[in-house]
Amino acid sequence: MSDPSNVPSLRSAEVGRRIGVGLMYGLWKPRVLGAWKVPATGPVILAVNHSHNIDGPMVIGVAPRGSHFLVKKEAWIGPLATFMRATGQLEVDRSTADRKAITQALGVLARGGVLGIFPEGSRGDGDFASLRSGLAYFAVRSGAKVVPVAVLGSTDRRGRLIKGLPPLRSRVDVVFGDPFEAGDGTGRRTRAALDEATVRIQKQLTAHLENARRLTGRQENAGRPAER
After folding, report:
1. Any alpha helices (H) in 28-158, and if so which ranges?
2. Which residues have a Cβ under 8 Å from the Cβ of 204 and sit 6 or more positions away?
3. Contact indicator for 169, 27 with CB cutoff of 8 Å
4. Do the beta carbons of residue 89 and residue 16 sit within 8 Å?
5. Rounded distance, CA 94 to CA 79, Å?
6. Contacts of the segment 85-89: beta carbons below 8 A, 24+ positions apart
7. 28, 172 Cβ separation under 8 angstroms
8. Four-CA torsion 197, 136, 124, 154, nearest 10 degrees
């Protein structure tokens, strides 16, 4: 069992959501579709594609519930680390099986909270082409519903003041998909079960991303490499 004292509070996540929504709407023009699909109660995992540095803060701000994102330890520097800790985010060392981060994440879900994950592991093309098994582990272990989230911003490098960010005041689409269960209903937690769940998740996330591109008219961006 996780130590409740070591799990960020729901209140801290809600504070992060309120701050995030002000920042995101102040700097960009978010268009949010399907937010009503996020279950209002119970454990939920937001599985987000990752092609821009603002993907996490954007989802934190526009999601209907406060969320705790797993954030790579390299980002926990100076004042930003203090801010992320105060808003309930979770530091994770991606180079190892980070037991503290795993325990905290499972604690969030056990308490009926919302966990945010970038299943691709790091920022890339944002197309869900390569998934790590972490998402499957958390989903199968907790029984939480998985909600796919597509964040689609401009791929045009013109107007960018900071590398890895969409141009300021440009439109950023955030599309929430239908929740689904990653497991097969048997409760198995074997390596084979996790591998099967990963394949199942990838199909769901890829289908959602394709649908999100059609809904937002961003098919032209598909296949373009993200700016590193």
Report:
1. 55-62, 78-86, 99-110, 134-142
2. 146, 148, 177, 180
3. yes
4. yes
5. 21
6. 85/8, 86/12, 86/15, 86/16, 87/12, 87/13, 87/15, 87/16, 87/19, 87/20, 87/60, 88/8, 88/9, 88/10, 88/12, 88/13, 88/15, 88/16, 89/8, 89/16
7. yes
8. 90
pLDDT tens, N- to C-terminus, the chain (228 residues)? 445 558 899 999 999 999 999 999 999 999 999 999 999 999 999 999 987 888 999 999 999 999 999 998 999 999 999 999 999 999 999 888 889 999 999 999 999 999 999 987 654 454 555 566 789 999 999 999 999 999 998 655 555 556 668 888 899 999 999 999 998 877 778 888 888 998 999 999 999 999 999 999 987 555 444 444
Please tell me the pTM assigned to this model.
0.89
Q: Which amino acid is at 9?
A: S
What DSSP letter does each residue of 146-171 carry, written as one string? Answer: EEEEEEE-----TT-SSTTSPPTT-E
The span from the CA of 84 to the CA of 182, in Å, is 28
